[in-house]
Design a protein that fits this description.
alpha/beta, 9-stranded parallel sheet, 9 helices, 7-stranded antiparallel sheet, TIM Barrel, single chain, 22 strands
Amino acid sequence: MIASLVRSSVRLVAVPILALGLVVSVLALAAPADAKRVRPGFFGMHDTRISGGTLTTLPIGAVRVWDSGTSWREIEKRRGHYDLGRLRTAVRTARSAGVRPLIVLGQTPRFHARHPHAPGAYGRGATSMPRLTPWKRYVAKLARTFGTTVDYQIWNEPNVVNYWTGSVSQMALLTATAGRTIERVAGRRAVVVAPAFPLRLSSQRAWYRAYWHASVRGRGIARFVDVVSANLYPLEHQAPEASMNLARFARRALPKAARQKPLWNTEINYGLRGGPAAKEISPRKQAAYVARTLVLNAASPVSRVYWYAWGLGSIANTHLVTPDGSELTRAGRAWVVTATWLSGAEVRGCSHTGRGRLRGVYVCTFRDGAEGRRIYWKPRGRPVGVRTPSTTRSWSSLSGTTTERSGHFRIRVGQAPVLVTFRR
């Protein structure tokens, strides 16, 4: 397992936002000696078409290979026979695009399940604890095949009964077994990612905490993985800002040994209702949600975020591409614009006002060399006018329109983020 992976070792600090004339309440991080830079690998995606050889052209640096016909039970359909054709195609497609693949190792083939009649979203037995010998063989097969060219995730959402009906201690044992096997076969530079945990329900948070405080033969889970993973979906009526509360919990709930490991947001979208179709929201709000998601995750302890998903159906309310896949939606175009704003920038802080006329305005500050960048938005209520810094050079809307302007001026700030650039 790698020791050189970039760590998200940032701290919460109070940040005065002088352009607003207020000292504001704090959302995120800023540690000048240890600053986080937004690199291409930060932008992740799910694309179910990847095992067929196609991949989104949006600017991304990582892809999570899931819901693409590449789960364990779809690879090993007969005992000891592994059909890796679709998974090889997915990995080859990602790597040819310069994108880092993340393989999810579950779900259990029925003939390897300790409880073959266990119900689940992917069929009988898929959610069951597997027998350890076939689990080790399968993990070793993938590690020999792909080595360090991919990242390996232990399981998807074990704190949801549709994906796991085993116990916390059994998932801990699977983690330790897979971590040791990957390290032995692929080497210490292989990246092992902990299971992906949704956290929006209190029961899910309790499961997450119990997992991370479990041990296997006296060793904590942190010994066997390199990356912490959470699926930061908020409740169905909530916006991107609410998911950051879950990100903070994800870090706080960890034992000390795990707290310095990178945190990846391995699934995010909005409006999810646990099965029924999500309630629709306007294209304008969808675009604002995408932009705010990327900015907030960039300015948080999250070091990689995977959007769920390219070509998504009605399960969520924010869509990057039209149903026929022919063109980007307003939200998809917002992804492109926001990635341009953030790419290569160093995170300085993210805060929001707590009182006064500008109450509720968010300000996230980045820098790139001599250029400062501030991204403003107001998620609720009527838009307000915000005065920019005296060294302002330009401002850009989420539509991609840029206005060159020097000195102080006032911009209108509402739910869609606005970028202001200035000389530092």
